[in-house]
Amino acid sequence: MLEEKIKNIESVEELFALLKLDFDKHTVRVHRLHILKAFGDIVVSIEARKPAPTEEERRILYASALLQAHDRYTFGNCSCEPPVFPGLRQNLIPLRIKR
User: Fold this and answer.
1) pTM (2 decimals)?
2) Count of domains in the chain?
């Protein structure tokens, strides 16, 4: 079952391999967590569908979701994402930098 296989994956590269997808190594190295977050958000919406997708539909939808998440960062269209640490941008977290 696809969900069980995904639960045992330890890296995003393994996820691409499981779904038999190519990826840009630089993009994954730089945006790994963002890609996984975007993928996870899409998967939640996939799993909320009624009726639930079949196993084959799920594999196709998950592959599409991972490519969507990957391509968002590969093609530089990541302005839609909030900053990783919004507190830094809003000056809510003081940085103690020695000068």
Assistant:
1) 0.74
2) 1
